[in-house]
Amino acid sequence: MRRPMISARLARGLVWALALVPVVFFSIGLGAKDFSSASSILNTLGRLTGVLGLALLLLAAALSARVPGFDQPFGGLTKLWHTHHLFGAAALLMLLAHPLLLALASATHGHQLPVKVLFPPLSDTATWSGWAALLLMMVFLAPSFSFFGSPMYERWKRIHALAGPAIILALVHTFLFSRTMPVNLDTAIWTLFALLGVGAVAWRLIFSRRAGRVTHTIVDVQAVANNVVELTLQPARPERRLNYQAGNFVYMTPLDKSLAAGHGEEHPYTLSSSPTEPNLRIAIKDLGDASRAIQSVTPGTTVKIEGPYGRFFPTSGETSSPELWVAGGIGITPFLARLRHLRALKQAADIHLIYAVQDEARALYADELRELANAIPDTRLTFHYFYKEGPISADFLTTTCPDLDQREVFICGPLPLNKLVQEHLRRIGLPYSRIHTEEFELL
Ligand SMILES: Cc1cc2nc3c(=O)[nH]c(=O)nc-3n(C[C@H](O)[C@H](O)[C@H](O)COP(=O)(O)OP(=O)(O)OC[C@H]3O[C@@H](n4cnc5c(N)ncnc54)[C@H](O)[C@@H]3O)c2cc1C
Known about the structure:
This protein has about 450 residues and is an alpha/beta fold.
């Protein structure tokens, strides 16, 4: 089954179009005097970048809402958050240009005003609130840019919380000036956008923590390898059993205070269980302090589960077009869930799974994968060992799976593997729309 890529494009397109709504109203209010001189053109551009920047900032906040299901039209939470990051970056660019253009406009006009824009008097709350918002924005967005290196996730999250005050200050700034759009529209439009942005942040911080998180008890802990455990989680109340699809992920927050790290911290993990199982299963690789600590968790302790999120596969357990799956390391989890589901449904599926690992000892679930591939008609499994064959090559892909150009491809693994396989596929001529990826990256 071909996944509906159009819907993801349409969803993204609609949000970008929404960002232009204030710009359209702003433009309606413009007159000949706004373009009568170099100074007035710069002033108009300065105000325009302010309007667009604020709209992008508020929509970036709205896109950060983690409401199960809301991510679906965007192609899953990782893709939705990619759009959120783009909006954040575009907002920063616009809002940096905003005071510079206004200061330039004043200077061109021959006034003392650049000084007023750049160094406003203390009593000028309207301008100061704008500067404070911009400063906070630069602080909370800086760690998101790879230029500053890979951020520590928990620290990044704390700094990112400055987005709240930045948004409020930006709104104060706009309402105090209140001259972005024709009469009365200012208040109506910005209130609507503010409700979207602030509502999403409130949902994330308040409601999702209370209503969205379900208590589960860890009923089993299985060592899959020396640095990977699989937890089995039972909902505390059977009626709160999670309804999910193979390939979905959840946020898990351990409540065990005796853990060496990660107590009370939420982390995303893919469900490795089949949606038909009564309990959830999650396989966790030791990749940092919290995931290392969870390796020694004991049955009987509780966790909170929030989700499901993501849309890696088109629909749970169903497949009608042939597929090629490429997994790397712990990136096997969504594929494992799907295979477990296909076997539970006793369904045939034309799937070729290539599992890339360093060596035989690092192939997680190797025996179960072989067993699943044997049990599911038309499903094949190939291991790729880095120590023997080096990085996956285009040759390897086409030799192992000669009809790959007929297949829908799904990739999940470390970023370098993900990128490499995508490059090979693109060179072979596979269109983007046939390549689907899941990234275990910062969310
Ligand atoms: C959609 C998705 C599905 C995932 N599925 C699995 C899975 O099935 N099994 C598994 O072992 N791991 C999975 N991960 C990765 C897992 O979330 C991280 O390994 C874990 O959060 C690391 O936390 P830490 O405190 O141990 O490590 P840290 O030392 O904090 O970080 C180690 C690495 O994990 C990243 N990371 C840390 N916290 C988060 C977070 N909250 N969100 C995203 N990335 C984070 C960091 O940026 C860093 O690259 C998944 C990640 C995502 C985004």
